[in-house]
Design brief:
four-stranded antiparallel beta sheet; alpha+beta; 7 strands; Immunoglobulin-like; three-stranded antiparallel beta sheet
């Protein structure tokens, strides 16, 4: 009697193995309460909008206080660093944790030209940077 291998079963096992590997990576990179030993733990997403006179950058930073963010412009690049702190009450059971915690960093190359930072505001979970185009 010939045995046939079920390709759907093999694909399912492979998918489960990949999910397990992804979970292990997630746990390694997003551990609460551990200080960042090396570089940033996560990179926030950003939108960049340009008008004739201004460049506006929106960076999603939910739950990050403005005092925990440093913005600098060097060599035609914006550099945003900071940390999203975990402030969980004792005996908290985490059911799901999708928003990253820990040190973050975002580097954005600016278009050619000279810019002056006019506005640096955290509002509604976003850092809004407005840069004036000079000359």
């Amino acid at each position: 009697m010939t045995k046939f291998r079920d390709p759907a079963g093999a694909m399912w096992l492979q998918a489960l193995k990949m999910l397990e590997q992804a979970d292990q990576l997630h746990r390694r990179f997003f551990q609460l309460g551990k200080p960042a030993a090396q570089g940033p733990v996560w990179e926030p997403p950003a939108d960049i909008l340009e008008t004739g006179r201004y460049l506006q950058i929106l960076i999603a930073l939910p739950g990050v206080d403005a005092s925990d963010i440093t913005v600098s412009i060097e060599n035609n690049r914006i550099h945003v660093i900071g940390a999203r702190q975990a402030s969980l009450p004792a005996n908290t059971i985490i059911r799901r944790l999708e928003i990253p915690y820990g040190r973050f960093e975002k580097r954005i190359d600016l278009p050619d030209g000279h810019f002056q930072l006019l506005e640096n505001v955290v509002k509604n979970g976003c850092l809004r940077l407005t840069l004036n185009k000079l000359g």
